[in-house]
Design a protein that fits this description.
The chain is mainly α. 55% of the residues lie in helices and 4% in strands.
Length: 306
């Protein structure tokens, strides 16, 4: 069973060009099913029936969360169940198309409704606090400054940010080539402040971080290596705390702030879609709800007859 899952993951990597995060998520979810199937005595995918898939999902809905006390009543969210069903459906679709399994059992699994969560963004005042340069200058805080200016100024995803290489920068022309989900490339403009922060880091900070075996990544750790996702985000969270921002800032918040602030200042939704690298406009449309709620707040606060 494990071999077939590996074939599917290879397909995601080499033929679908799925992002690393998506590959890891699907691997974890399918391995969870394999662990459950082994306890049920299922040793082959051809032995799996629809009732087994249903039993697994019911087990997932009812099991307690690993990071909660045993007596906790909290259970897996519908969002997590949605992802597990999506992983099974994608796997079975691949196995049927490749003639590895005779029938796609998972096509009969219905996806639970996903409630759209409105993205949270930082206020303009919080952004100003966060992007105030730290003194005295050091290679690390120059790296942080360039990273934050680029993240907020161009709306990059965390994986895109840590993966930026020197050859993707076109500072004189004021843009960057970004390699996004599915290895899709897009061109994103850089603002003056982002260009200035990156140039300062390249001139003064990065040369002191480079070691003999350092990669061509723009952002380097103090050991001269490329950032891992967790390490990169830890650095940004530390900077958030030092800036005196009390909120829990999540990895996507700078990206959400980029999109929300563009929309609030009159940018066209299609342009924002292009800049964010969204495949469909429906993904970008969530920001119209954010802007709409802000408008309502302003109306209630300032209109004489709210």
């Amino acid at each position: 069973m494990q071999n077939l899952v590996e074939d599917f993951l290879q397909h995601l990597r080499h033929e679908r060009g799925q992002a690393e995060h998506t590959q890891r998520t699907y691997a974890a979810l399918l391995n969870k099913f394999l662990g459950w199937a082994g306890k049920q005595g299922l040793a082959d995918w051809k032995s799996v029936e629809l009732r087994h898939l249903m039993s697994f999902l019911q087990h997932e809905r009812e099991r307690g969360l690993g990071n909660q006390p045993k007596e906790s009543a909290r259970r897996l969210s519908s969002e997590s169940v949605y992802l597990e069903i999506a992983a099974l459906r994608a796997f079975y679709r691949f196995a049927e198309n490749e003639k590895l399994l005779p029938v796609n059992l998972a096509e009969n699994l219905s996806l639970p409704r996903r409630w759209k969560r409105l993205p949270k963004s930082l206020t303009s005042a919080e952004i100003e606090k966060l992007l105030t340069a730290e003194t005295p200058e050091s290679p690390q805080n120059l790296c942080d400054q360039a990273m934050l200016e680029l993240a907020y100024g161009s709306g990059l995803r965390l994986a895109e940010l840590r993966g930026v290489r020197l050859e993707q920068l076109h500072l004189d022309a004021g843009f960057i080539n970004v390699i996004g989900k599915g290895n899709k490339e897009r061109v994103v403009p850089l603002g003056r402040k982002a260009v200035a922060a990156i140039q300062r880091y390249l001139e003064v900070g990065r040369p002191k971080l480079v070691k003999q075996r350092s990669p061509a990544n723009l952002f380097l750790t103090k050991r001269g290596t490329a950032f891992a996702s967790v390490t990169l985000w830890l650095r940004i969270k530390q900077r958030v705390r030092r800036a005196g921002i009390a909120r829990n800032v999540t990895p996507h918040m700078l990206r959400h702030s980029f999109a929300t602030h563009l929309l609030e200042n009159g940018a066209d939704l299609r342009v924002i879609q292009e800049l964010l690298g969204h495949a469909t406009i429906s993904t970008t449309e969530v920001y119209t709800h954010v802007a709409g709620s802000r408008l309502r707040d302003v109306h209630r606060k300032f209109h004489p007859r709210p």
